[in-house]
């Protein structure tokens, strides 16, 4: 075997090893950048009371927090509870001989913990034990409220792994068939998610139909975007959908830490990324009487529309490529000779395409 022949498979392997290296770098930057050192900034809290002492306490906490807290006062306990139920604040402190802290852990367990840490010190300075009251009732199968995030993970993996299969193994199929397969898989993936959320793990105790609907919107958006991207990215599609729907998606979803505990980049993504739309939409639907639900559903719908538009662009690109292939002039005896050579070339090309499909599927499964 010649040195050139021996080095060809090695170059092939080394070229494909670039993908896992990029995944490693991307996952490290995304996850460590988002989660390695959560620090509160502009964390909204209320002090209950209208007298001078409440104003002084609020101003003192605002000044000492140096940007960590955004403190205001509300006149009474009812106003504080209402603000928590509208997800306007993350904690409300009622000072006095028996101080009480109101939180809504369904909005974010980690944010509630951060608020509790602050006001435990405030109460300790007054030599008084702090009573903590949660104004929301979490589902029995999700005592921390973070099960919704892990449901997001399951839906995401089922969706973007399906993209690799449809784009790789189904590459010879017309795009309309691939799009229909994507929609079919979105129903299956979202149905499995609903089973996980409801009867199997009891992540939600009620309103399961709405959770399934948002699961479908979320999954269908990923699948259609992925199928559309595959026309242009080919074997890089797996990496592309991982960047969009894992690296940037999980970290900005608010499922573990909300934007108030994260660097500003991920907080900015939280406003319009599809994972945040699903997590916050599910929280709103299940625990907060639908407050703000319309905006979260709009985010999921816009991602789905983006997927439909991308599939449309991909259809135009594939049609143009087919017209270009048909227009290649072939004439006379050269056509016969070229036909024989082309047959051999197509056999080699077909084998190469089979290898690419297999490698793409292996990458998806490995992820």
Largest sheet: 5 strands, mixed
**Beta strand %:** 5-15%
Report the radius of gyration as a whole number of Å: 27 Å
Number of helices: 13
Which sequence of SSEs, written as H and E, runs from N to C? Answer: HHEHEHEEHEHHHHHHHH
Number of separate strands: 5
Q: What is the structural class?
A: alpha/beta
How far apart lie the N and C ends? 35 Å
The main sheet orders its strands as 2-1-3-4-5
- The 3D shape can be described as elongated
Helix content: 55-70%
Note poorly predicted spans: 329-337, 339-351
Mean pLDDT: 88
Describe the structure.
The chain has 367 residues and is of the alpha/beta class. It has helices spanning 3-16, 18-35, 52-65, 77-85, 109-125, 147-168, 175-200, 208-233, 237-252, 264-270, 274-287, 293-326, 332-366; strands spanning 43-48, 69-74, 92-94, 100-103, 131-134. The chain has a five-stranded mixed beta sheet with strand order 2-1-3-4-5, with helices on both faces. The longest helix has 35 residues, at 332-366. It is elongated. The two termini are 35 Å apart.
Features:
367 residues; alpha/beta; 13 helices
Task: Give a short synopsis of this structure.
This protein is an alpha/beta fold and 367 residues long. The chain contains 13 helices and 5 strands. Helix 8 packs parallel to helix 12 (293-326).
């Amino acid at each position: 075997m010649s040195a050139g022949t021996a080095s060809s498979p090695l170059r092939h392997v080394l070229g494909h090893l670039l993908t896992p290296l990029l995944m490693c770098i991307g996952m490290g930057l995304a996850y460590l950048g988002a989660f390695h050192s959560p620090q509160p900034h502009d964390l909204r809290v209320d002090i209950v009371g209208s007298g001078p002492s409440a104003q002084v306490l609020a101003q003192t906490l605002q000044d000492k927090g140096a940007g960590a807290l955004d403190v205001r006062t509300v006149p009474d306990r009812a106003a504080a509870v209402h603000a928590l139920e509208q997800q306007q604040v993350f904690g409300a402190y009622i000072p006095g001989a028996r101080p009480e802290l109101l939180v809504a852990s369904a909005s974010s367990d980690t944010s509630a913990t951060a608020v509790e840490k602050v006001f435990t010190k405030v109460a300790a300075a007054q030599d008084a034990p702090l009573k903590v009251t949660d104004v929301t009732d979490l589902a029995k199968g999700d005592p921390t409220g973070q099960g919704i995030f892990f449901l997001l993970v399951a839906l995401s993996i089922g969706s973007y792994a399906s993209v690799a299969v449809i784009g790789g193994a189904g590459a010879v199929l017309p795009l309309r068939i691939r799009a229909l397969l994507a929609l079919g898989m979105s129903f299956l993936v979202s149905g499995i998610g609903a089973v996980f959320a409801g009867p199997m793990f009891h992540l939600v105790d009620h309103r399961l139909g709405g959770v399934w609907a948002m699961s479908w919107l979320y999954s269908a958006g990923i699948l259609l975007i992925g199928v559309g991207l595959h026309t242009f990215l080919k074997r890089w599609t797996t990496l592309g959908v991982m960047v969009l729907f894992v690296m940037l998606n999980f970290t900005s979803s608010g499922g573990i830490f909300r934007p108030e505990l994260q660097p500003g980049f991920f907080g900015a993504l939280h406003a319009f990324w599809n994972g945040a739309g699903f997590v916050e939409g599910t929280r709103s639907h299940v625990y907060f009487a639908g407050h703000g639900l319309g905006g979260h559903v709009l985010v999921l719908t816009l991602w789905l529309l983006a997927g439909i538009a991308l599939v449309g662009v991909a259809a135009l690109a594939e049609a143009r490529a087919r017209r270009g292939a048909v227009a290649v002039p072939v004439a006379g005896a050269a056509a016969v000779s070229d036909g024989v050579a082309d047959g051999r070339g197509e056999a080699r090309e077909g084998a190469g395409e089979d290898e690419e499909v297999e490698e793409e599927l292996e990458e998806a499964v490995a992820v």
